[in-house]
Amino acid sequence: MTSSLFKSDRYSALSNSAVATARQAVDLTRKSLLSDDHVDREFLFTDKDFQRVRAMILSVAGISLAPSKQSMVYSRLAKRLRACHKHKFSEYLDALENSTSNPEWEHFTNALTTNLTSFYREAHHFDILARQLTSLPKRDKIELWCSAASTGEEPYTMAITAMEAFNSMRPPVHILATDIDTKVLEHARKGVYRMDQVEKIPVELLRKYFLKGTGDSEGLIRVRPEVQALITFRRLNLLESNWGIRGGFDAIFCRNVMIYFEKDVQFQILKRFAPLMNEGGYLYAGHSENFAMARDYFTLKGKTVYTVNADQSFSNQPGNRMSAFGGSRG
Question: Region 306-310: what's the mean pLDDT?
Fold first, then answer.
């Protein structure tokens, strides 16, 4: 039964398979966010094992795990030991370290990646983004990058902000949305969420940009195809030496991810962001992040918003002065 709030032919039922997949993804994501609750130890997990895990995830993903996260690490990786039919953490970790091409590395990284996000999180950023977009010179395409897309709420909010700013379902905007975690990217691509996950979105925007599920899909909501069309989702590890993307971004959202990196890693990432950004481009940071260490590359503009310094921007890099656009970002 459809709520009277959504009596519109814009809303349609999702397929049973999509519903089942979405609910499974939601459950898996929720379970993966369990913190340090004590669990009975099925596997031997020593301090040495924990230190190995800390070193491995730091190396592969730049994530610095606090000493207090030992129980969290156990609860997340114990699932992987069962899946791999390992009886001890040392066996599991040995298998990873013995082969850099082991596909289990992806599962290991996914398990230890935290993906807390929501629609319109730190909402003031989207007001700033709307003003930024409408102040840019008219052009065929405006490029934005969401560098920690998680389950998709942030890039979809960016897309809706662009549509509202330009009063168009087809604004001149493209968003590259990346994340290291392949599981959350699968969820993000589907664009299906529980109703309680969209509570922060005004009703008029829900009507305009979402399809409400009915029947077996009741309780779920899906992002409209027009919103999804603005976004390219892609796996990317910010620690990789080659990101495989070229510059020309007017905004980069890198919010609430730097806090998991050591300061020197943060600096190296920021240093690489700068030459990918157009002059005057904005870098959006998380509420607890401070990028003062990169003042040679970015200048604080407002609350957790930075502008790229002109001499470090994409348009002032050798070979880019004639054209700041073109090339593949997907």
Answer: 96
